[in-house]
Amino acid sequence: MSVEGKVALVTGASQGIGRGIALRLAQDGFDVALADLDFQEDKGLAVAQEIHDLGRKAIFVVADVSSRADVFAAVDQAADSLGGFDVLVNNAGIAQVKPFLEITEEELDKIFKINVNSVVWGVQAAAAKFAELGHGGKIVSAASIAAIKGFPILGAYSATKFAVRGLIQAAAQELAPLGITVNGYAPGIVGTGMWDLIDAELSKINGKPIGQNLKENVDSIALGRIETPEDVAKVASFLAGPDSDYVTGQVLLVDGGMLYN
Ligand SMILES: NC(=O)c1ccc[n+]([C@@H]2O[C@H](COP(=O)([O-])OP(=O)(O)OC[C@H]3O[C@@H](n4cnc5c(N)ncnc54)[C@H](O)[C@@H]3O)[C@@H](O)[C@H]2O)c1
């Protein structure tokens, strides 16, 4: 079965892993809707242009994934503009680098709204659209190695990613009768804006020079190099495509050899 002309929506697609997944899905044959925050529109439009250059359709949609209304509107816009809806990639997320004893109520609310609530809204919106169109589909969400193991100074972040794994397992079982698979990808240390932030914030806390925290983490990877968005996109492509038809409720580690299960 080909994915030619099928429609995927990728959130947080203006940069980093989301951009990598959007480009890979376009190479696979999907038409792609890209969602991101309004200040990321120019970068999102540039990704849309790259997808046009690959011969596929693409649109950019402004959406804050912590808003249920925005996520539903983004799914509607993707389906209306691109003529169908088959795959949602809940990729958008943020990190917070904070010693456990200093995490505030405001920070905890914010990271859960962006990393966890967004996945609930995404699953709901995608399932409603699949039902409206009379077919099943695939929902793929960003987990992390921090969904499998809690990391110090990333306590709130780890909790959100554990939550995403729980949501994936529950939704997969509830939505299987509707022909919907629900899975996630769990990257390790990917060279994106997120790790620039984590490295800089860890430096402030532990005094190590900029780049040192990143280097130490990369040194622990069995395959011996930092992960790229393309490495993650290969697994997302599998989970979005027909080769994963008999896979559901899974969070696939793609970390170059950091965690083993
Ligand atoms: N970088 C890593 O090492 C790593 C490892 C494991 C998991 N992840 C996960 O992968 C996903 C992508 O991470 P990345 O490294 O590409 O990060 P990034 O910061 O480079 O990109 C994240 C994108 O999401 C967008 N975004 C943030 N908040 C949003 C919101 N409320 N609504 C819509 N868009 C929003 C940002 O504007 C940005 O374009 C995240 O869920 C992250 O937790 C990243």
UniProtKB/TrEMBL annotation:
Record EC number: 1.1.1.304
Family to which the UniProt record says this protein belongs: Belongs to the short-chain dehydrogenases/reductases (SDR) family.
Catalytic activity: (S)-acetoin + NAD(+) = diacetyl + NADH + H(+)
Taxonomic path: Bacteria, Bacillati, Actinomycetota, Actinomycetes, Micrococcales
Native organism: Sanguibacter gelidistatuariae
Active site: 157
MF annotations from Gene Ontology: diacetyl reductase ((S)-acetoin forming) (NAD+) activity; quinone binding
PROSITE patterns associated with the record: ADH_SHORT
Protein name in UniProt: diacetyl reductase [(S)-acetoin forming]
Residues involved in NAD(+) binding: 15-17, 36, 64-65, 91, 157, 161, 187-192
Matches recorded under SUPFAM superfamilies: NAD(P)-binding Rossmann-fold domains
Listed GO biological process terms: acetoin catabolic process; fatty acid biosynthetic process
Transmembrane segments: none
Key words of the record: NAD, Oxidoreductase
Top EC category: oxidoreductase
PANTHER family: 3-OXOACYL-(ACYL-CARRIER-PROTEIN) REDUCTASE, SHORT-CHAIN DEHYDROGENASES/REDUCTASES FAMILY MEMBER
